[in-house]
Amino acid sequence: MNDNTLAKGKAILTKKSESFLNKYLNNASPTGFEASGQKLWLEYLKPFIDEWQSDNYGTAYGVINPGQEYKVVIEGHADEISWFVHYISDSGFINVIRNGGSDHLIAPSKRVNIHTKNGVVKGVFGWPAIHVRKGADAKMSPSMENIFIDVGASTKKEVEEMGIHVGCVITYEDEMMILNDRYYVGRALDNRIGGFCIAEVARLLKKNKVKLPYTLYIVNSVQEEVGLRGAEMIAETIQPNVAIVTDVTHDTHTPMMNKQKLGDVKAGKGPSITYAPAVHNNLLNLIIETAEKHEIPLQREAASRRTGTDTDAFAYSNGGVPSALISLPLRYMHTTVEMAHKEDVENVIRLIYGTLLNIEKNHNFKYF
Length: 368
What we know:
This protein is of the alpha+beta class.
């Protein structure tokens, strides 16, 4: 076996990997409507796994070395923030409500795709021109009460004839790009970039002909953005012995971020590990030992009470599952220009891969 995946500075992503990432990020996968994204992900994953499954709500997972008593999960989440059509005015304008943590402040002037049974209908978040915002209106700012979508219609009936109705889901129209040959940029890196990372781990295990002493589940959960719901369901289905979750965290070195309040994490400086009640110390120590052994850069942060990620759902399921969180530093979370450093992405993959090699059959993570 020629395995130099963990060599310091080794580039592990391929052109095919990045082509998949581009296609995967550009595809819409809003919370509750993740099916098309999951199909893309599975299509890429299938050559590297032994079997796959999906549950009733759309969480998908691949399995390597099935049938073993000891079960390990590596997990990301597949959904992206979006909007729902909430109200259509007689004049043909559309008001919205959130689906996940969508930010109303960035909405004005954004192009959107409204997903209907007849296909995608284009629209824009409109906003009054600066010329007319005078006097008291000069301080007008976007709110959930005043943002609206314009689809070029003049009546409610015309909007409905397009196939748009209350409950249609809306995503932003923004495509991935690479900035300064250094950053992946786009919407929905939170957290389809995590699904990409765990798929790459599976690819490397296959490429390097690694024989794991346990069953590995590569899990892409749904509905994280509305309360970790997909992870809650799949944790009960799989009943794993160990769970390693990957998600994004804030790069706090950008303007208007308070490092003393939010923690000290910077894109390009490596994955971040989290200390929290849900994070199992012995599993965390194994991850740290892996990073030190293979010179993978690490950052640290602490979470009070809960991590706010799928780590919490796995940790507190099935009587307690040893779980840990590996986070990718991200700029401008929940916007259309989320940014992740390419080296951090590779190091998240290397860290998960190396940790899996250090987990033994029937590994005991008990405290005492």
